[in-house]
């Protein structure tokens, strides 16, 4: 057992609390990771605010990175001291999606039960009662115990804050462009919503050789951030969607070949589909509350051979895609460091959620002391 501090949600809609928890030692096939950085993703806010029902109590965080500091029996791919980014999806390996090599579409991942694959939970409160680990990795904590398959080895030299972002927003956004859309060079692109996920779509589009990248947000500061990672144009998306569609068509010779929706709002999903030219593709990356439904004109979609694609986790196979994105970052081709504008302590997590709710700032990253947590 190790005593650690972690952000725990005990009731949806109520603040998270920084609690001291007991973390079990890694068992067979598990590793303990000392967390160095954990990004604050809007998906954490969806959980915190109760948009998506989740079992509780639960230790938060799914966008994290650190260093392996203990290994259980039988672990072969990792050793102590290895820098890793954590994957929020460990494929079950046997379902129809996994058998078809579409691990990002696995519906039966143990990660979604917020436990280890055998159903065990590795955290407990001071009362001895189990606390779940969000997506099986609980990264907003000084340390975590995860299945070996969730800890993906990265090359040396990646800033832990960037490594954390590779764990969710970078992989989600870059993968939506490179893998889900498989976007050809020279295509025109629009990205609606410029948080960590949308800015990663912009980076991915620049890497893929888009001819034009129009970045849209309701806040002008976000347009500047998008230009810094490769956008060619910025557009404020106000409440008048007809005007936005018109402006987007003017900038892209009749509409963008690919539109990425990276907010998760019904009205901007509809805006994305509405703005498509003949043969255009809308890639939906933002996540709505569970029950949300959107509508679109069926005739123009079919008649114009338009497409709508859903993209979970950027169609990632984390074991191969995380190191690839890390290498591209180290080679200067994915400037993921520019997504980060604030490094905070764990005690400021609720403040970070407030800023994220208001749209203020770019990606916020909780950083942890480099020293190991207390305890044996
Ligand atoms: N598909 C996946 O696998 C996956 C993975 C991670 C996150 N997500 C989802 O992606 C979405 C974005 O996550 P994020 O962390 O980048 O969020 P974020 O809150 O940092 O970014 C959202 C951006 O949208 C802008 N915005 C909000 N309302 C707007 C409007 N009406 N018009 C224009 N712009 C508007 C905000 O100003 C902000 O810049 C969330 O729904 C999150 O849950 C999906
Ligand atoms: Zn996320
Ligand atoms: Zn599966």
The parts where pLDDT drops under 50 for at least 5 residues are none
- CA distance, first residue to last residue: 7 Å
The shape, in one word, is globular
- Give the SSE string: EEEHEEEHEEEEHHEHEHEHEHEHEHEHE
Strand content: 15-25%
Instruction: Please count the helical segments.
Output: 11
Bound molecules: nicotinamide-adenine-dinucleotide, zinc ion
Sheet having the most strands: 7 strands, mixed
Q: Using DSSP, what is the number of strands? A: 18
Going by helix content, strand content and strand pairing, the class is: alpha/beta
Average predicted local confidence, pLDDT: 96
Cα-based radius of gyration, to the nearest Å: 20 Å
Level of helix content? 25-40%
Polypeptide structure, described:
The chain is α/β, with parallel strands linked by helices and 376 residues long. It is built from 11 helices and 18 strands. The chain has helices at residues 42-48, 96-99, 160-166, 169-180, 196-207, 220-228, 241-251, 266-274, 298-303, 318-330, 349-358; strands at residues 2-9, 17-23, 30-39, 58-59, 64-71, 83-86, 123-124, 130-133, 143-147, 151-153, 188-192, 212-217, 233-236, 258-261, 281-284, 307-310, 340-344, 363-367. The strands form 3 sheets. Strands 3, 5, 6, 9, 10, 17 and 18 form a 7-stranded mixed sheet that branches. Strand 17 (340-344), helix 11 (349-358) and strand 18 form a beta-alpha-beta unit. The longest helix is centred in the C-terminal third of the chain and has 13 residues, at 318-330. The chain is globular, with a radius of gyration of 20 Å. The mean pLDDT is 96. Residues 41-43, 46, 168-169, 172, 193-198, 217-219, 222, 237, 262-265, 268, 285-287, 311-313, 356, 359 line the site of nicotinamide-adenine-dinucleotide.
């Amino acid at each position: 057992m190790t005593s650690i501090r972690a952000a725990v949600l005990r009731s949806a809609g109520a603040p998270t609390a920084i609690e001291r928890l007991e973390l079990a030692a890694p068992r067979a096939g598990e590793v303990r990771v000392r967390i160095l950085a954990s990004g604050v993703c809007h998906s954490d806010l969806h959980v915190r605010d109760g948009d998506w029902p989740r079992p509780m109590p639960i230790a938060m965080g799914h966008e994290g990175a650190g260093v392996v500091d203990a290994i259980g029996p039988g672990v072969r791919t990792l050793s102590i001291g290895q820098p890793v980014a954590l994957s929020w999806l460990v494929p079950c390996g046997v379902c129809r999606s996994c058998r078809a090599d579409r691990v990002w579409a696995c519906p039966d991942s143990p990660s979604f039960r917020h436990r280890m694959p055998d159903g065990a939970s590795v955290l407990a409160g001071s009362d001895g009662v189990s606390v779940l680990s969000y997506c099986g990795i609980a990264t907003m904590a000084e340390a975590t115990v995860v299945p070996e398959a969730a800890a993906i080895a990265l090359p040396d030299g990646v800033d832990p804050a960037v490594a954390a972002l590779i764990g969710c927003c970078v992989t989600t956004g870059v993968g939506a462009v490179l893998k889900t859309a498989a976007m050809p060079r020279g295509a025109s692109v629009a990205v609606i919503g410029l948080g960590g996920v949308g800015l990663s779509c912009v980076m991915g589009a620049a890497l893929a050789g888009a001819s034009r990248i129009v970045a849209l947000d309701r806040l002008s500061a976000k347009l500047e951030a998008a230009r810094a990672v490769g956008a060619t144009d910025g557009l404020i998306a106000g409440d008048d969607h007809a005007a936005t569609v018109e402006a987007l068509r003017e900038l892209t010779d009749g509409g963008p070949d690919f539109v990425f929706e990276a907010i998760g709002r019904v009205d901007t999903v509809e805006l994305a589909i509405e703005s498509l030219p003949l043969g255009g593709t809308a890639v939906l990356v933002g996540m709505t509350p569970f029950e949300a439904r959107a509508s679109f004109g069926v005739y123009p979609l079919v008649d114009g051979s338009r497409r709508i694609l859903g993209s979970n986790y950027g169609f990632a196979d984390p074991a191969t895609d995380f190191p690839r994105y890390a290498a591209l970052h180290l080679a200067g081709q994915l400037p993921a460091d520019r997504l980060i504008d604030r490094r905070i302590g764990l005690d400021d997590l609720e403040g970070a959620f407030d800023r994220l709710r208001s749209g203020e700032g770019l990606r916020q990253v909780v950083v942890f002391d480099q020293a190991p947590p207390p305890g044996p």
